[in-house]
Amino acid sequence: MMSSNSGSFDSNNGPSLNDLGFGPFFMSQLDMIELETLTPFRISEIQRSIVVGLGDGGTRPLRTPHKVPTSAFAVGDWVLADEGDQITRRLDPRSELKRRGAGTDVSEQLMAANIDSLLIVTSCNEDFNLARIERFLALAKDAEVTPVVVLTKVDLCDNADRYISDAGDLMDELDVIGVNAKSPDALDALSPWCGKAQTLALVGSSGVGKTTLLNGLTGRQEATAAIRENDAKGRHTTTYRSLHPALGGAWVIDTPGIRALRLHEKSTGIEQVFDDIFELATQCKFNDCKHESEPKCAVQAAIASGELEAERLERWRKLEREDNRNTETIAQSRKRSKEFGKMVKSVMTDSYARKGRTK
Questions:
Q1: What is the pTM of this model?
Q2: Was 152 annotated as part of a binding site?
Q3: Was 289 annotated as part of a binding site?
Q4: Relative to the CA of 264, which of 14, 62, 83, 110 has its CA 20 to 30 Å away?
Q5: 284 marked among binding-site residues
Q6: Residue 157 annotated as lining a ligand binding site
Q7: Does the keyword Metal-binding apply (predicted)?
């Protein structure tokens, strides 16, 4: 029910649907019956068995449909719920961050939905890792959201400009912001991505300053944990994903610390992040050039001239190999599932046939 004047649903307790980002894209997915009988909520928190929805009547726990796990939803999702607070439908998202599950699992893990910008947070110390930043950039490009690299602890670093330059060289027109997360100036630097009803997500390793940034953006006072002195690596302070209102009218999705990011299935973002290598590859003599020792290889020529770093080529190769393995593994898993389904159907058909013959 789009109107929230009935029952205990008090429209004065929470932000409006427009403030939450419920625009024409989502409204167009509702039919007249849903408009009259169901209520839209934006998912603001997901734990192992808890889904919390945020609407113009405030927050409330929502029940997932029978046998549907909470992992089927993402923080930032828009869902419809009935009068019993049971989710009836997940609306198609405008954007969706997802990665491959841990271990040998080929399933995808939803990280966040309906975001406009992905803030890739890393610090100017031992945590700074170009390969990890490139993975997050590919993640953002896969989701068709704007990536922004936020380098923290610039006040504790003597050569912050080098970190900013190295990150900026990873992709054309990439915004790289160096901040002291504890300074009010950090909020001003991030204001272009914090407009009213805009949603940004924070990703990065533990201890890089995500919680400190979140505190500044939202005005809250969440506890932070210091990094370990022996290796400059952080400790987890965020244990689940959650949506928070920012001071400028934006919404911020905080995520647990991520050190190992596995891209899911065939990533189109890799080509966008490494467009310099793909462009050079078109100039190679052979279409199937491996960029190793082939004659007239434009990629190797660029490395020899200093135009391209050999380390960047190796990072691209590693991501491409992983991406190809993901695609093959997922294809094999789907093939096995399809074959198993056919086998089950065949067994059931035979069983029914035998029962018919014995009657």
A1: 0.80
A2: yes
A3: yes
A4: 62
A5: yes
A6: no
A7: yes
Is 255 annotated to bind a ligand? Reply is: no
Q: Which CATH number fits domain 17-90: 3.30.565.10, 2.40.50.140, 3.90.550.10, 3.40.30.10?
A: 2.40.50.140
Q: Tell me whether residue 150 is annotated as binding.
A: no
pLDDT tens figures, 66-119: 889 999 999 999 999 999 999 999 999 999 998 876 555 556 788 999 999 999
Amino acid at 36: E
According to the annotation, is 194 in a ligand binding site? no
356 in a known ligand binding site = no
| Structure tokens that stand for 136 in this block | 């997050």
Measured between alpha carbons, how far is 175 from 133 in angstroms, rounded to an integer?
13
| Annotated binding-site residue? 297 | yes
Q: Is 358 annotated as a binding residue?
A: no
CB 1, CB 34: distance < 8 Å: no
In the chain, what are the domain boundaries? 17-90, 96-254
Is 205 marked as binding a ligand? Answer: yes
**Token reading at 139:** 């993640």
Q: Is 282 annotated as a binding residue?
A: no
What number does CATH give the domain 96-254?
3.40.50.300
